Amino acid sequence: MVPLLLVLLLALLLFGAGFALKALWIVAVVVLAFWLLGFLMRSTSAAGGRGRWYRW
């Protein structure tokens, strides 16, 4: 009985980790897309040149 419970617990942990990793990949792709849009659509300065693409 104990080995069966351990196998089920391991399967549950691996399924949860796989789902979390997939969700993190999706979040990372969305953040990358927003970063690229911000990089490509940055505003111009008063002199007509492109400003810094970062804010710090």
Automatic annotation (TrEMBL):
Q: Which domain of life is it from?
A: Bacteria
UniProt name for this protein: Hydrophobic protein
